[in-house]
Write a structure and sequence with these properties.
This protein is mainly alpha-helical and 162 residues long. 56% of the residues lie in helices and 5% in strands. The protein has 2 domains: 40 residues, no CATH class; 86 residues. A 3-stranded antiparallel β-sheet has the order 1-2-3, covered by helices on one side. Strand 2 and strand 3 form a beta hairpin. The longest helix is centred in the middle third of the chain and has 22 residues.
Amino acid sequence: MICCPFHADRNPSMKVDFRFHCFGCGADGDAIDFTAKLFQLSLRQAAEKLATDFGLSATDNFQQLPCKPVEKPPSPKEQFYKILCSYRSLLADWRMIYAPQNPEEPLHSCFIASLHYAERVQYLLDILLQGSSHEKQQLLNGKEVISLGEAIERCKETEEAA
């Protein structure tokens, strides 16, 4: 049996997905290339053949069907991970932005919050990623991440007000 239409003297395996590749002769390309090689046509003739075979016309005005990828809602663990990572990033930014420039300068509330909450956020991330299933379940069922978020939001409000 000949697997590849491009040479009759070999019997190679052939991979077909969005593009084809013949491991025997090295031929590869898309559906139009494959059709052109298979039927010994030009690329235009191959495209026209495919259009005809599938009842399509190059001159028709096709209404494109809306195509949206199906997105599954994130799991609670994924949601908490995203929240905690955003907190960690925000606190790291605050630590740099609001660091006092000299010893006499009063400490900004966001800088204090960055010092106060950063280790706790990292600890919660560690539990989420590497904790026991019991620890993870307690974290996901608890209100700590929510209350931590509320505290950080209050700091954000003072930052924006300043």
